[in-house]
């Protein structure tokens, strides 16, 4: 059993860890008491928090423009109330003797050079880091906007053998600046006369990172405060056999690339998903925390250099996948879909690549506004209904240009997208693909000339469709049946071309999407055939593995799609 703690004060059972900030503001940096000031220029008020000599905590908010003297008077009044409370028992005696109430303590703020700060100085200017507040005989060192942990939360589902990544939110700092301490709960035998057993916490050697991997030896399932006991894993997963091919990171000159639609939580948690789309899937295995356990283990086990994900919830990227993959050496980039809660994420291995630039676009906006697509706009002018449908789509294209750290002369342009999903949207996907390819071509011809392309995504198109033919062959005729896929009275009839030589690195699998009512190949890793070649394709799960629980997702597979994985090399 594990418990995660914030310092020694806050406990979230199920896991346990101590966490402290790394840096100069450590707990033993000064012998003075602390006065913490939070002051944000965009906010009208600042806050001052401290503990008075009687042990009572005080937290007050003051206008930033207010003169310091008023804030100090308020502090003196608060401190005086504490003194009055302590002397309350002798109130009757003082009344009989006519003695006055105890005086308010002297309160002053000193600058770092020991000079008293004038009372007319505005609060925002007066309360600086390193100034000293004196209340009576007690001195407080002011810490302005010190790093603070604002939220610490464990996932509800904790599985033995799967990475655990707590949700961490910080202010004036980053989780990367935190030290995490993980502890294992152990039984301590006390003998027959005492209780049967008690629990104790033992720090786990080496457990100082944001992500931790509990094992089966870490205790039997039991109910704990967090509601997230460490439970047994689901047994064999669809990706276990694939990990046998990806145990190690690829060597120099190779690029292990992954493309994966991970199924956004906003789609997995609908009534439609539970009762119509995935009725065969156990409800608990559609829960986000459960699926995230599987996803983090699956992705970490691929030892990838580049990962392109689709249907990534913004919160999942920020709180779960981003920190987890960061711990495994991968830097993450996120692009939200227009007016949506999910989008695209591209990760790259830091010790193999550095990011040169990003060139993300919203496909509908680019078509409407970018001069690059004027010719396509003119072709679509006679078809306002089609134009309107393209404009209604929220699809985006994420483009990242990476440079090899071992050979700076080698660059790669990584595209990541998720095209329109509707079965009758073949014409919309053709237009979206044309915009995407034109944008990518502009980057590799005009911004980074002769840079190879890796174009990943969920294209929602099988190999028999016009979209796949267009990307692979470089053209699509105006009489292709997909131009009439939406059934308009006036089908869009245009021809498209592009000069890129692209091929599907993983070929044409029987399926990359397998649900109860459909299975087919929708996902691809297109590569620049002039500059890149395939070293190996990691086999997909067997049909028996995919259908063990009828279809996807399942208790052993976190998405309704299957990840594509291949090792590429420069020619």
From TrEMBL:
Task: Tell me which InterPro entries the record gives.
Answer: CCR4/nocturin_mRNA_transcr, Endo/exonu/phosph_ase_sf, Endo/exonuclease/phosphatase, PDE12-like_N
Chain spans, region Disordered: 79-101
Domain named 2',5'-phosphodiesterase 12-like N-terminal: residues = 146-218
What residues does the Endonuclease/exonuclease/phosphatase domain cover?
259-561
Name assigned to this protein: 2',5'-phosphodiesterase 12
Name the gene behind this protein: PDE12
């Amino acid at each position: 059993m594990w418990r995660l703690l914030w310092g020694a004060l806050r406990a979230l059972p199920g896991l346990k860890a101590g966490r402290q900030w790394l840096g100069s503001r450590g707990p033993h940096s000064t012998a003075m008491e602390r006065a913490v000031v939070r002051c944000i220029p965009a906010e009208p008020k600042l806050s001052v928090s401290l503990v008075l000599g009687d042990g009572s905590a005080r937290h007050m908010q003051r206008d930033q423009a207010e003169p310091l003297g008023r804030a100090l008077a308020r502090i003196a009044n608060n401190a005086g109330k504490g003194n009055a409370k302590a002397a309350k028992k002798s109130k009757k005696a003082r009344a009989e003797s006519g003695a006055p109430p105890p005086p308010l303590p002297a309160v002053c703020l000193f600058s770092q050079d020991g000079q008293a700060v004038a009372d007319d100085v505005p609060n925002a200017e007066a309360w600086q880091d390193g100034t000293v507040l004196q209340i009576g005989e007690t001195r407080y060192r002011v810490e302005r906007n010190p790093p603070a942990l604002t939220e610490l939360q464990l996932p509800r589902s904790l599985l033995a053998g799967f990475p655990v990544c707590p949700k961490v939110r910080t202010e004036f700092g980053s989780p990367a600046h935190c030290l995490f301490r993980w502890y294992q709960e152990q039984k301590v035998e006390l003998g027959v006369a005492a209780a049967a057993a008690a629990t104790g916490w033992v720090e786990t050697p080496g457990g100082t990172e944001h992500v931790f991997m509990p094992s089966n030896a870490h205790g039997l399932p039991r109910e704990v405060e967090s509601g997230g006991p460490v439970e047994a894993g689901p047994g064999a997963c669809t990706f276990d056999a694939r990990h046998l091919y990806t145990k190690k990171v690829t060597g120099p000159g190779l690029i292990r690339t992954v493309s994966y639609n991970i199924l956004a939580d906003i789609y997995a948690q609908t009534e439609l998903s539970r009762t119509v789309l995935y009725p065969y899937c156990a409800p608990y295995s559609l829960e986000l925390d459960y699926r995230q356990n599987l996803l983090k283990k699956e992705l970490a086990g691929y030892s990838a250099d580049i990962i392109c994900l689709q249907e990534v919830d913004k919160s999942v990227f920020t709180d779960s996948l981003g920190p987890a993959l960061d711990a495994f050496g991968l830097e993450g980039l996120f692009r939200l879909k227009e007016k949506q809660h999910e989008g695209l994420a591209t990760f790259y291995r830091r010790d193999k690549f550095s990011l040169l630039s990003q060139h993300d676009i919203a496909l509908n906006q680019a078509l409407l506004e970018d001069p690059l697509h004027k010719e396509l706009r003119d072709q679509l002018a006679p078809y306002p209904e089609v134009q309107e449908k393209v404009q209604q789509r929220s699809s985006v294209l994420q483009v990242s240009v990476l440079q090899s750290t071992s050979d700076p002369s080698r660059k790669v342009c990584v595209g990541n997208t998720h095209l329109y999903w509707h079965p009758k949207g073949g014409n919309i996907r053709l237009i979206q693909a044309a915009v995407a390819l034109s944008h990518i071509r502009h980057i590799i011809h005009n911004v980074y000339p002769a840079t190879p392309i890796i174009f990943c995504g969920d294209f929602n198109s099988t190999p028999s469709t016009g979209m796949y033919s267009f990307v692979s062959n470089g053209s699509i005729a105006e009489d292709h049946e997909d131009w009439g896929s939406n059934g308009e009275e006036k089908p869009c009839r245009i021809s498209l071309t592009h000069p890129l030589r692209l091929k599907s690195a993983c070929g044409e699998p029987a399926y990359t999407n397998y649900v109860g009512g459909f299975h087919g190949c929708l996902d691809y890793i297109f590569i620049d055939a002039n500059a890149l070649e395939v070293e190996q394709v990691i086999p997909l799960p067997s049909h028996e593995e995919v259908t063990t629980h009828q279809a996807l997702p399942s208790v052993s597979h976190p998405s309704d799609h299957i990840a594509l994985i291949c090792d590429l090399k420069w020619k």
